[in-house]
Predict the structure.
Amino acid sequence: MRSALMAPPTSMPDPTDRRNYDPNAWGGPADFARICGHSDESTINAWVKNGGPAGFPAPESWKQLPTRKRPQWRFATMWNFVDTVPDRRVGAGGGQPKKPHRYAGDERLELAQRLIRAQPTAKRDDLVPQLREQWSGRSYKDATWRQLITTARKLLDDERGEGERA
């Protein structure tokens, strides 16, 4: 006959339901992730390591585990973060506003547009080495420069009202 011991619960109480927790109790990255509406704790761990969004609280304590230290926050601190920081509420969708295109605000795109304006009939593969030569930042693969040129041409065509290129 099997032991009368009950199996451990398969899930913890929902940390977004504040009735389940004492505001002064400690919670870890998994709790913080659930409160923020994330599917796992990887985002919270990255924020702890690299700095999170504005208003993200530094860990208030560290729990020593056998192989590492785990950050800890009071539930009141976690709830305060989602209550006061825009788009960090559960179900808010969060994240950055959608950009109009992949290279919006990118200096490389502006450089590509200037080059295309100066040489409107030049072929894309002829412009790549010129862009690479004029760019003073880190290096990029030719495929990236080709994508930038394609985007720059499309935007310039749209400005002129020409629509799709033939």
Notes: The CA atoms of residues 83 and 89 lie 6 Å apart. The first strand starts at residue 26 and ends at 27.
